[in-house]
Amino acid sequence: MNPTQLQKSEYASFYQPYIDALDENINLIDELEISLHKTIHFIQDIPMDKFDYRYAEGKWTIKEIIQHIIDAERVFTYRALRFSRNDKTALPGFDENAYADAVNPSANKRHLKDLLTELTMVRHSTIALFKSFTPEDFLKIGIASEREMSVRALGFIIIGHQNHHMKIFRERYL
């Protein structure tokens, strides 16, 4: 399954930049694995003095963004689980800034190794869940943030969200 199979009705338009951040030839499950390894290696090559850097007042540090990627993946994966299990309960959006305000002071104090371990564990859990889905599960639709979303769109959004932040690291932090 690749992102060209997605219909625009499977995700909210505000996720389009994440879908646009994907190579159209990727396979969802393979890319969940590949993108994790690319991200870990990329982050490990960042000079240590850059981890506390903010490119503008009020912007997050690299460690804060890593924590944000972890948190967002957990939220997206939870949505995929609920939708795949035919849960029709409309799920609220999540306030990424409220999450950041709650965790960012501690994220900056964490060892990079611990953040990367958590990122890896979360991704491995995501991969295991997505591997368990049947072809029919991937097409299931639920409601989050008052918009319809498919299970497969959530998988691609996880990857695109991570790619989006890796691009920001390259352009604004390094």
TrEMBL record:
SUPFAM superfamilies: DinB/YfiT-like putative metalloenzymes. Residues 32-167 form the DinB-like domain. Pfam families: DinB_2. Gene3D superfamilies: dinb family like domain. This is DinB family protein. It comes from Flavobacterium cauense R2A-7.
